C-alpha cells in the first residue's frame, strides 16, 4: 500500500467572496485556522465547493499558494487541479506542486468527456508530470463520466495515483472498488451522507462539505469509523442527516455558503451562474440550523 495522504475528515473549503466579486483572503485564512483548530484533518482548496470553475488562472494559483502558506504544514493541503483539457491540467498540477501543495485532487474530464482508455491516458499524463500524490475524483453527476473499477485498477499501478474521492452515490460500486483496488488506492467518501457506509467498507475518510458547519463532529464521526466504533459513528451520521440534506437542498456550494452567512461567517455570495437560494429553501435551511443550535 502506498502512503496515505490523510485519514479522517478533510474539508472541501469554500472560497469566500467580497461584495465586489474578489476573493476574501482574510476570511479564507480565518476559516482555515478554525477548521484546523476544530480537528479537520486536511484542507482541500479549489475544489467543486471552492468554485474553482469560475476562477481565473491567477486566482486559482493564488488560492493554492495562500492555503499552503496559511496551513503551514499543520495538515496536508490538497489542491484541485482537474480540467477537461489534459495539457492545462498537467500545467496546473505542476504549478500547484511548485507552490507547495501536498497532493492533488483531479476530477474526470467534463463536457467533452472521454473513453475509459482516454481516462487512463489523461490521468497518467498528469501523474507522470508531478512528484506528489494524486486523488482521482469520481463524480459522474457533474462530469457525465464514471471511472470504471478496471480503470482505477490500471491507474492504481502508477506510484503517484494513490486514492479516489468517490462521489457517485453508488454503494455497490464503492464495495467493488475497495474489493478490487483497496490494495492500490485509498478511498474517501465524497458524499457526507455516506461517510459511515463507505468507511465501514474500508474507506479512509471523507472530503467533506458538512465540516464547514460542524467540523468537530464530522472529524469525530470519521475517527470513530477508523477505530471501528461504527455504533457511535452512525449516531452522528443519523443525528445530522437532516443538516446534510439541507446543505445540499440546492446545487453545492449555494446552501453551505448561505448557511455560513446565516451563522455570521460572512463568506459572501457564490459567483454566477450559481444563484442565491430561493426564500423557501433558505427558510428550510435556517430552520435546520436553528434545530441544531447553529443559528
How many structural units, i.e. domains? 1
SSE order, as H and E?
EHEHEHEHEHHEHEHEHHHHH
Class computed from helices, strands and strand pairing: alpha/beta
CATH superfamily placement: Aldolase class I
Overall form: globular
Q: List how many beta strands DSSP finds.
A: 8
Low-confidence stretches: none
CATH class: Alpha Beta
**CATH architectural group:** Alpha-Beta Barrel
Helical coverage, percent range: 40-55%
Mean pLDDT: 98
Could you tell me the radius of gyration in angstroms?
18 Å
Helical segment count: 13
- Main sheet: strand order: 1-2-3-4-5-6-7-8
How big a fraction of the residues is strand? 5-15%
What would the keywords be for this entry?
295 residues; 45% helix; globular; TIM Barrel
Describe this structure in words.
The radius of gyration is 18 Å and the shape is globular. The chain is built from 13 helices and 8 strands. It starts with 7 loop residues before the first strand and ends with a helix. The chain has a single domain (8-227), classed as TIM Barrel (Alpha-Beta Barrel), CATH 3.20.20.70. It has 295 residues and is an alpha/beta fold. It has helices at 25-37, 57-71, 86-98, 116-129, 140-143, 149-155, 171-181, 195-200, 215-226, 230-239, 241-246, 254-262, 279-291, and strands at 8-12, 42-45, 77-80, 103-107, 134-138, 161-166, 186-189, 205-208. The model has no long low-confidence stretch (mean pLDDT 98). 47% of the residues are buried. α1 (25-37) runs parallel beside α2, α3 (86-98) packs parallel to α4 (116-129) and α4 (116-129) packs parallel to α6. The chain has an 8-stranded parallel barrel with strand order 1-2-3-4-5-6-7-8, surrounded by 5 helices.
